[in-house]
Design a protein that fits this description.
Distance between the termini: 20 Å
CATH superfamily of the largest domain: Transposase IS200-like
Helix content: 40-55%
Organism: Candidatus Campbellbacteria bacterium RIFCSPLOWO2_02_35_12
InterPro entries: Transposase_17, Transposase_17_sf
Order of helices and strands: EHHEEHEHHHHHHH
Protein name: Transposase IS200-like domain-containing protein
CATH architecture of the largest domain: 2-Layer Sandwich
GO molecular function: DNA binding; transposase activity
CATH class of the largest domain: Alpha Beta
Number of strands: 4
Strand content: 5-15%
C-alpha cells in the first residue's frame, strides 16, 4: 500500500475517563466519520450538535476523505485508531478534528473548560510489516482491559469469556469486521479495505483473533524504531 499508515492514541488528561455515558462513546464514533473530510470541521460539529446521538449514524453526503480507517476501539480513558492518510499531513488534520471536536462536545456537555487530552495525540507511523500485521489484534483486544485488568501481565484467565466479551463489545469496529455488529457504526471504518489490506475475511480474522489471544503474545511497542 502506497499510503502512510499511522496508529493513533490519545489519553485523557491525568488518565481521567473521557467517555462517561453511551452518548459520549457514540459522539466520538460519529466524529470518526463526520470529521473524516476535507470539509470545514465546525460545519460538521454544528450539524451533529443537535442530532439525536443515540440513533444509528446516518449516511452523509460524500466528500474527500482525510484517512482510510481500518480499526478503532474506545476505552473509558482513551481511543485507538489505525488509519492510512489519503493526502500529505492528512492524518494530523484528522487527529486535530476528531479530538478537538470531542473536547468541544465534552466541555459543553459537562460544563467544564480546558484540555481534555494529554496534549497532542500520538500519531505513530507504522514502518514495518510485522508491526502492521500485529496492530489490528492489539487494537481490537484493548477492551479486555475492562473485562480483566492486567490481562497482559497475568494472562487471560477465561479465554471463552474474553472472546465473547470482544464479540459483544459495542465500542470497537471488531464486531462489524466479523459480521456481528449489524452495521451500527459501519461508516466509521472501511471493512472491505481492511480485508484487502490484511488479506483476510470476517471468518478468518475472527479465528486469527482467537489464536492470537491463546498464544499470549500481547505486548507491542508504541514506536516503530
Amino acid at each position: 500500500m502506497d499510503k502512510n499508515i499511522f496508529h493513533m492514541i490519545n489519553r485523557g488528561v491525568e488518565k481521567r475517563k473521557i467517555f462517561l455515558t453511551n452518548r459520549d462513546y457514540i459522539r466520538f464514533i460519529h466524529n470518526i466519520s463526520d470529521f473524516n473530510s476535507v470539509d470545514n470541521a465546525l460545519q460538521s460539529y454544528m450539524r451533529r450538535r443537535n442530532d439525536n446521538l443515540m440513533e444509528v449514524t446516518e449516511v452523509r453526503p460524500p466528500s474527500k476523505q482525510l484517512v482510510d480507517v481500518f480499526c478503532w476501539s474506545l476505552l473509558p480513558n482513551h481511543p485507538h485508531l489505525l488509519v492510512a492518510e489519503c493526502g500529505e499531513k492528512f492524518a494530523g488534520m484528522f487527529s486535530r478534528k476528531i479530538f478537538g471536536g470531542y473536547t468541544m462536545y465534552f466541555n459543553e456537555n459537562y460544563d467544564r473548560s480546558g484540555v481534555l487530552f494529554q496534549g497532542r495525540s500520538k500519531i505513530i507511523p507504522v514502518m514495518r510489516d510485522a508491526h502492521l500485521l500485529h496492530l489490528p489484534f492489539y487494537i481490537h483486544s484493548n477492551p479486555l482491559d475492562v473485562f480483566q485488568p492486567n490481562w497482559r501481565e497475568d494472562g487471560i484467565k477465561n479465554i471463552k469469556g474474553a472472546i465473547k466479551f470482544l464479540e459483544e463489545y459495542r465500542w470497537s469496529n471488531y464486531r462489524d469486521i466479523i459480521g456481528q455488529g449489524q452495521g451500527e457504526f459501519a461508516d466509521a471504518s472501511n471493512k472491505e479495505l481492511f480485508f484487502d489490506m490484511f488479506d483476510t475475511n470476517k471468518r478468518q480474522y475472527q479465528q486469527d483473533m482467537i489464536e492470537w489471544l491463546k498464544e499470549g503474545e500481547y505486548s507491542i511497542e508504541l514506536t516503530d524504531s
